[in-house]
Every structure is written in structure tokens, then in C-alpha cells.
Amino acid sequence: MRLVLALAILSSATFVRAQDIRGVWQPVEVLVVSGPEAGRHTDVQPGLLIVTERHYAYMHVQGFVARPPLGSNPSPETRCSTWEP
């Protein structure tokens, strides 16, 4: 029984094709066209754009300065402010 189960798992895994990653990019410059922070910024926060054949994912930290640490007992207002750009 154990041998049959192991063979079934191994044989089914061979049919699953991994998606090919087409590219991964990291932002190095941001152009803001209006507002108080308008202009070209090279002080961007970390982020990644990952592109596969059929999907993409973009994760980044908004803003141009690092978020302050929350501390040991943050208030609800302080917690909310860390999520806003």
C-alpha cells in the first residue's frame, strides 16, 4: 500500500509544469507627475515586479521614507498610520 501511494504521488508530480519566470524587476526610480512630491525620485522603497507567462505580482512599499517602528504598545491610530503611504 505504501509503495503504491508513493508511486502515485511521484507520477502525478511529473505532469505538473512549473511556470517559467519571464522577468523580475526592482524599482530604482519613480516619476511623480503631480502633487507635493512631484518630480523624479531615486530614493524609492523596496519592491519587486515578478512576471510569468500568464501572471504577474507587484509588491512594493509606497512612499519615499521608511516607516517608523511601531514600538511595544502602539495605539490604533499609530497602527493605521503605518499602512498609509
Please explain how this structure is put together:
With 85 residues, this protein is α+β, with helices and mostly antiparallel strands. It has two helices and five strands; from the N terminus they run αβββββα. It has helices spanning 2-13, 76-83; strands spanning 21-25, 30-32, 39-41, 47-52, 56-60. Strands 1-4-5 form a three-stranded antiparallel beta sheet, with no helix packed on it. A hairpin with a 3-residue loop joins β4 and β5 (56-60). Mean pLDDT is 78; it is low at 1-16.
List descriptors.
85 residues; alpha+beta; three-stranded antiparallel sheet; two-stranded antiparallel sheet; 5 strands; 24% helix; flat; disordered N terminus
Question: What is the topology?
Answer:
Elements: H1 2-13, E1 21-25, E2 30-32, E3 39-41, E4 47-52, E5 56-60, H2 76-83
Antiparallel strand pairs: 1-4, 2-3, 4-5
Using only C-alpha atoms, the radius of gyration works out to: 22 Å
Beta-strand proportion: 25-35%
Task: State the distance separating the first and last CA atoms.
Answer: 56 Å
What is the helix tally? 2
Q: Mean pLDDT, as a whole number?
A: 78
Specify the biggest β-sheet.
Answer: 3 strands, antiparallel
Order of helices and strands: HEEEEEH
The count of DSSP E runs of length 2 or more, i.e. the number of strands, is 5
Strand order of the largest sheet: 1-4-5
**Oligomer designation:** single chain
Overall geometry? flat
Instruction: Give the helix/strand class.
Output: alpha+beta
Task: List segments where confidence is low: pLDDT < 50 over at least 5 consecutive residues.
Answer: 1-16
Approximate helicity band: 10-25%
